[in-house]
Prior knowledge:
Blueprint (H helix, E strand, L loop, with lengths): L2 H10 L5 H5 L8 E3 L15 E6 L3 H16 L3 E2 L8 E6 L4 H20 L4 E6 L5 H10 L5 E3 L7 H10 L4 E3 L7 E3 L9 E5 L1 E2 L10 H4 L4 E2 L2 H13 L4 E5 L17 H8 L6 E5 L8 H8 L7 E3 L7 H7 L5 H14 L4 E8 L6 H14 L3 E6 L17 H24 L5 E9 L6 E6 L4 E5 L8 E9 L4 E5 L11
Parallel strand pairs: 1-8, 2-3, 2-4, 4-5, 5-6, 6-7, 9-12, 12-13, 14-15, 15-16, 19-21
Antiparallel strand pairs: 10-11, 17-18, 17-20, 18-19, 20-21
Helix pairs in contact: 9-10, 13-14
The structure holds 5'-deoxyadenosine (5AD) and iron/sulfur cluster.
Amino acid sequence: MTKKQEKDYAQYFQAPSLKEAKSRGKEEIHVLYDSGIPDDMKRFGEGKTYLLQTYGCQMNEHDSETIAGLLEAMGYEATDDRRSADVILLNTCAIRENAEDKVFGELGHLKTLKREHPNLVLGVCGCMSQEESVVNKITKKYGFVDLIFGTHNIHRLPHLLKDATFSKEMVVEVWSKEGDIVENLPKKREGMRAWVNIMYGCDKFCTYCIVPYTRGKERSRLPEDVIAEIRDIARQGFTEITLLGQNVNAYGKDFEGREYTFADLLADVQKIDIPRVRFTTSHPRDFDDHLIAVLAERGNMVEHIHLPVQSGSSEILKQMGRKYSREHYLQLVRKIKTAIPDVVLTTDIIVGFPGETEEQFAETLSLYDEVEFASAFTFIYSPREGTPAAGMQDDVPVEVKKERLNRLNEFVSKYSLKDNQRYADQIIEVLVEGVSKTNEQMLSGRSRTNKLIHFAGNASLTGKLVQVKVTGVQTFLLKGELVASDHHNYQEV
Ligand code: 5AD
Ligand code: SF4
């Protein structure tokens, strides 16, 4: 290696460190206003194509919109054909082991492709690249990968791509510490729904969760930047936005000398002319009365709250580091239901946390009975290296965990059907998403509460808000009939 190469390598090879992530302090976060593309990179992708494969949550989906935006601003075009792609990027998820297994499986397949197309630039980004063990594994066992970059390095993509194209070495740039907030990056948004980041990172450090390490500390975007982006999205004609953050209720807590909370932000977003506003994900501990009051005013705030509970046992919640009890959660639910009687509540639940007893699991079932969630994402606990729970004694056999998941999923189905039955014979507002994937004759859409509904209608209604009468109710699907409108201006109904 030449001296220059050595210097470059040292600059790019900044391996992630969980230890550092845990000891993070109160460093100031700067906001950079940056279009992201240096002049000499603006035509770098002309005549070339890219394929971006996204795993995991909506945060990752949204990061992919930024990555695609950056690539297209450099002249690259999207392709579905991996054999002809010049750049393939895997935007990965680290939340559970099976998510990681999928990516390593995919890398195994891509090895052959890379051998056949040596000029292909193959990159790994997203949450897995923030894990020290993953970076080490890729550098040792998947040496054909050209580029690894972390979740705080997305804005550096043009530079990294240039280096990866010309370098013989694998280019690795993963900032273990969160970077600044970078505004103005180009985004490739499609369809009628748009995602908007309101904050990054998480400071909750739930004992099972890798996110505070992969996404860094909590930092909120400035309200004026968020509002400007939403106004722009509304002007472009999007019908629905989802405000994104790992813990949206902590929005604004990091502002110094400024009192502006998530509820304040929602109150401001309520004034913007966009029909539907969602947000995810909420943490029950930070869900305050002001927020409930703003949601109860409705307007463009939909009657759906995703409120992860994780467990119904106060003891397990304590070990999970969730910082609320079963009673606190139930009280919060009561408050929400009093303020918004037709609210739809959904949740996330982990079964088989280390040491979870049958009685503690039964408490999760009884909590489900009490809340009657409309739906839930349910998971078997998956140990994540470096998290406190990974070191806890776990005497629950895998079969028992699987059996608990099955029992829980029966509750999910039962209450999903029950919740859907509330809609029988009602007329509801539906955002038409397009022709149904399972039945070409039908249109598919979503209620304000995110219920999937199928009904006969013309594909030209796609993107519109229409009124639909519910004529059939299934466990995970409603069926309906379009309600005739005199003036056909569905945007106004
Ligand atoms: N094992 C299983 N599920 C997990 N989740 C987060 N970390 C883990 C883990 N280690 C679940 C939580 C969270 C959702 C996004 O993923 O339920 O709310
Ligand atoms: Fe993970 Fe807990 Fe933060 Fe959610 S609140 S991202 S579960 S640490």
